[in-house]
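Protocol step 6 of 9: fold each sequence in the batch and record its C-alpha cells directly after the sequence line. For illustration, a two-sequence batch is reproduced in full.

Sequence one:
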Amino acid sequence: MAVPATRRITLDELVALNDEMIALVRSGVPLETGLLSLGTDLPGRLGALATALGRRLAAGESLADSLDESGTGFPRAYRAVVAAGIRSGQLPSALEGIATAARRAADLR
C-alpha cells in the first residue's frame, strides 16, 4: 500500500497516528508490529501511513529515519521532537508533548 508523497500529513492524521504510537510505546508493543497491524485496521491514507512506517521499521530503519525518508510529509518539527525523544530515552514523553501541542493547534483552528 503506497502512500502518496504529494501531500503533507494533515494535523488530524498526525494526531491520530501519534496517539496510536503513544499507546504502542506505552504498552511495550514493538512499533513495527503495532504499526503494521494498525495499518490493516485503519482506512485510507492513515492506514497507508502506519503500514509504510511499520514496514520501514521492520526492515531495520530507525523511527527517526523512517519519518524522514517515508515521503509522507511529516513536519520537520515533529521529526525533530521524535528524534530528541529517542536520543534522550524519553520517546513516550516526546510523543505526548507533540499530541498536546497538536491538539491545541487543532482547537485554535
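Sequence two, same batch, same settings:
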Amino acid sequence: MRKLTLATLMALTATLSHAQTCNPNIVREAPDSRYQLLNSDTEVKDTQTGLIWQRCSLGQTWSGTSCTGTAATYNWANALQTAKNMGNNWRVPNIKELDSLVEEACYNSAINETYFPNTVNSYYWSSSPYAYGSHNAWVVYFYNGGDSAYYKNYSGHVRLVRSSQ
C-alpha cells in the first residue's frame, strides 16, 4: 500500500509541475523586447501599451530573481478594494489591458515568464463587469490565455496595473 501511495503522489506531483510550452511557429506577441524593468525590478513597463505592471501577483514578493510566496486570491469586490487600498494609482486592469499580457504562442503559462515569473495558471480578475450577468466579471485564465465570465464571489488572482506617469 505504501508503494502505491508514493507512486500516486509522484505521478500527481509530475502532473502539477510547471513547464511552459510555446509553439516556435507562432510569432511572439509579448517578447522580452516589449518590456522594461522599473523600480528595482518589481515593476514592468509595457513599451507597447505604456502600462506599468506589478511584476508579481498580489501575495507574492520579488526575491531579486523571481516572484516567491503564494499568490493570494480574492473575490471581485475584494480585489477592487485591495487595489484601491494599495495607493500609488494601482488598480485592477480592465479586460483589454489584462488581455494585453497574454502570450498567444504559449500555454501552461500564457504570459511572458521572463518578466512575470511564477504567474499562477489560473483565473486573474479584470475590473470589467460582464454585460450579460451582473453576478459575473471578466477574467483571464493564464494557463491558456483564454478570457471568460467568472462569478464575482469566486476566488481569483490579481496583478495590478497603473498608467505610466
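Proceed to step 7 once all outputs are recorded. Observation for sequence two: Residues 2-16 form the longest helix (15 residues).
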